[in-house]
Q: What sequence folds into this?
C-alpha cells in the first residue's frame, strides 16, 4: 500500500510518468531476470557446441539467445564441476548481470556477504545450506563495473530425460551466483 501511495503521489506531482513506470516494471518482470539465465544454462546443458561458445565468450553466446544490454555487456561464464565450485561476489559494490539474473538480492549487496565471500567462502556457502567436500576447490570471482560473472552450475542427476524447458525450470538464481546447487528433479518438485 505504501508503494501505491508513493507512486500515486509522484504521479500526481508530475515526477513519474505512469507509462514509463509500467514499461520499467514490464522490463523487469518479463524481459530480464533469472529465467533468462536459466534458459542460458539449460541450453548449455543440452547443446555442447553452445556450451563451448558460452564458456569461451559468454557475452556473445548469451546475446545469441537475445539477452544483454545494461549490466550485461561483458559476462564471463565459469563452470562448476565435481571438484570445482564457483562463487560470485562484487567486493566493491554490487555489480551483477541483471539481464540474466534480474535484480540483485539484498544479501548480495550486503557488506557481510561481500567481505565474507572472499575471506570465508565455505562458511558463507554453509550458511546458504551448501556443504562442499574438503576436496572441492572453491573459486571466488569478483565482479566489477566492466566485467560480470555467471556460474554454469552442474547439471543435476536425474535430469537426463528432461527437455530444455524443464531443465530451465530447475535452475535458480542462487545456483547461477554459486551459493546453491541446482536441485535434482525429484528434490526440486518437493521444494
A:
Amino acid at each position: 500500500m505504501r508503494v501505491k501511495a508513493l507512486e500515486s503521489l509522484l504521479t500526481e506531482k508530475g515526477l513519474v510518468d505512469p507509462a514509463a513506470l509500467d514499461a520499467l516494471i514490464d522490463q523487469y518482470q518479463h524481459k530480464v531476470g533469472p529465467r533468462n539465465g536459466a534458459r542460458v544454462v539449460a541450453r548449455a546443458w543440452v547443446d555442447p557446441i553452445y556450451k563451448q561458445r558460452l564458456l569461451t565468450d559468454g557475452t556473445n553466446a548469451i546475446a545469441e539467445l537475445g539477452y544483454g544490454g545494461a549490466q550485461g555487456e561483458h559476462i564471463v561464464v565459469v563452470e562448476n564441476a565435481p571438484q570445482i565450485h564457483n562463487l560470485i561476489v562484487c567486493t566493491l559494490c554490487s555489480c551483477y548481470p541483471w539481464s540474466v539474473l534480474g535484480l540483485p538480492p539484498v544479501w548480495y549487496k550486503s557488506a557481510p556477504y561481500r567481505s565474507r565471500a572472499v575471506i570465508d567462502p565455505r562458511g558463507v556457502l554453509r550458511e546458504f545450506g551448501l556443504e562442499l567436500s574438503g576436496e572441492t576447490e572453491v573459486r571466488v570471482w569478483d565482479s566489477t563495473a566492466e566485467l560480470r560473472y555467471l556460474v554454469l552450475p552442474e547439471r543435476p542427476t536425474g535430469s537426463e530425460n528432461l527437455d530444455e524447458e524443464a531443465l530451465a525450470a530447475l535452475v535458480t538464481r542462487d545456483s547461477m551466483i554459486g551459493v546453491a546447487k541446482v536441485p535434482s528433479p525429484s528434490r526440486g518438485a518437493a521444494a
About this structure: The mean pLDDT is 90. Strands lie at 75-79, 84-89, 137-142, 148-152.
